Each structure stands twice: as structure tokens, then as C-alpha cells.
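ok so i was messing around last nite and threw this chain in just to see what happens. nothing serious, just curious
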Amino acid sequence: MSETASAIVVENLVKTYAGVTAVNRVSFNVARGEIVGFLGPNGAGKSTTMRILTGYLPATAGRVEVCGVPVATRPGDVKRLIGYMPENNPLPEDMRVSEYLHYRGRLKEVSRRKLGPRIDEVLELCDLKRVRHRILGKLSKGFRQRVGIAEAVLAEPPVIIMDEPTIGLDPHQILIVRDLIASLRGRMTVIISSHILPEIEMTCDRVLIINGGRLVATGTPAELRRDLIGGAHYDVEFAGEPADVSRVLAGIDSGLALALPSAAAPDGFYRGRISFTLPAAATAAAPEATRPGEDATPAAAPSGDGALAAPLSPPPAGPPASSTHAGTTPPFPDLGERILAALVHEPALRVRLLAPGRATLEDVFLAATRRTWEISDDAQQVLRR
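result:
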């Protein structure tokens, strides 16, 4: 991505507190009109990076630009380029919605001539026209969140930063806010910081994951699933000895691995995952969820990206043959049927479910942060100051 097409450029960003490095050589670009999720566990450096980006905290080293304006030397100009919606937006309880937006518009230096029409526009955009004369203190959480978004976009800044925009909302309110954020795509650059990972996955074009002060992953959700999780996997539920399942899987292919909790559920069944890492080009669609006794040959199976794959071939007759994992690619669309057939024919096992799984953004997040999850107690204490 060229810097001329970037709304945000961060290059080798470093921030230290009392000798402790909170942000360590972080670099990323965000394109104009892109919606990006910024994720990280507590103490990872996410908030520090956002404070530097918005001009409220100086960097120790590195380069940060917003729409070509350097943050280090022109923080005041950068603040005018960014609309910010904090997690707990401190709205005045005794003002009406339209009064508050007029007040904030004047502070943001929107001209008197443009302010009235612009307030009407953001009230329409955020579906707030029916409550424009309501007192802010009497609004529901969902309406207050939308007022926060309306304020953030009021001065038409090219960049919007939102901190937990859907936290505390009911499902209907979440859908409204999600659609509202999506409506900004292509018009404004949006960075969303959130711990609600399904919302990030459904809303954002790209995801940045920071941990231990370093940027540990970046890409689209699909790219991160491919690069960090690897190949496809199956969810499995069975009763019996895990060692018997592992033995059956080894007889099918040496690349199959079983992951289970430490103990079975109270009903005696284990709920685990069978994974098989393949090159990206070979990770074709897995079959639909299959239970013993059901027809295991669906007309078509959805691929990981939602497209339809070719109809699956029936499983080969007789016991499943072992494939050669090294140097050849097994017929992956048939693999689930072969696993199911082998497990069902194992007398010591009872299998009630084998279903193709799809890695979530939570799986990606855990994979990206697993190795650097903990930072030192000293760093935690400094970052809390």
C-alpha cells in the first residue's frame, strides 16, 4: 500500500515508560476508507498506540502520520483530522441531543452556516431524528452510543477511532451500530478497538493484533485464519478412550491431530477438535456436519469462504486406506467421511458428531498472542500509571 493511499502511517513506533518498553517498533498502514480492527489483551500496548496516534501522548521514537500530517510536530492539526468515540462517552445529562451536537460542532470549528444542515445529516445517518429533542440523561445505552458516533463524524473528519462501540448493547442495538459503522466504509477511515471479537470479524476489512508491545499479526480475518490456524479442522464428540481416537486418526493420515479438554463432559462425551494442516491451495471444503446413520454425500459443501465446492465423492469401499502425507495431498473433501467411517467402525468408541469447523477470530487472537501473553509485573505497573 503506497503512503499516498494511506490515511494512517505508523513506522517503527516506540514508547517507553521509565525504561519499560510499552510499544516496540510497531509499523502499519491503514488505507483511506478502510475499516480496521485493533486488538490486543490488556497491557499489550493498544491504548498507548491509540493515544500516540491521536496526538495525546508523545512517542519515544518512530514516525506517525495521519493524512500526511506528522503527529510529532503538528498534534493540534492531527486532532482536527480525527473523530474519537471513547468507550464510556461522558455525555452531559441535562442537554438535549441537538443542543449537544450544536455545542460540540462549535468546539470542532464547524462553521455556523454548515452546522445546522450537518447536524440534520448526522441525525439521519445515526437514526436519531426522533430523539433530537430528548434529554441525553434519559436516553437508552443504544441511543447514547449513537450520539457518540454522531459526534465523532459531525465535523466530517477523514479518520474515526472508536473504542468498544457495541459494548453493553442488546442484539438489536448491536445490529444498528454495526450497520452504521459499515455505512462509513469508503467515506471515512475507521479504527475500532474492541474485545468483542465476533463484532470485529463481521465489521472490519482488516485486523491488527498487538501483544507485548509488538504487532504480532495483521491481515484480513480469512488471511489470519489461514496463516495462524493452518488447515481445516473438524469438531468431534465421542465417548471412549482418546488414545483409541488418536490411533484411528494415525491410521488415516499422520497429519491428523486430536485436541481435547482434560476430561470428558458430565454426559461422558469428549468434545474436541481434529485438525489437519494443509497448504493454503489445498484446503478445500470439508463436508457438511455428518452424524452416524445420515447420508454422508451432500450435493455440495460450502467452502471456508462461503462458495460452493463440487459434490463429494462417496467414501471408498472397505477400510480407509492410509494416505501419504509427505509429498502428496490427500483427497481432502473425502477426509471427513473417511474419519467418520473409521471412528464408527471402532467398537470401543461411540461417535455422535463429526462436523467441519471454521476457525473464529477468537481462535486467531489466541494463536497470535499465545507466546507473548504475559508481560512482566514491572511493565504492568508502569502501564497502569
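not much to say yet. The first helix runs from residue 46 to 53.
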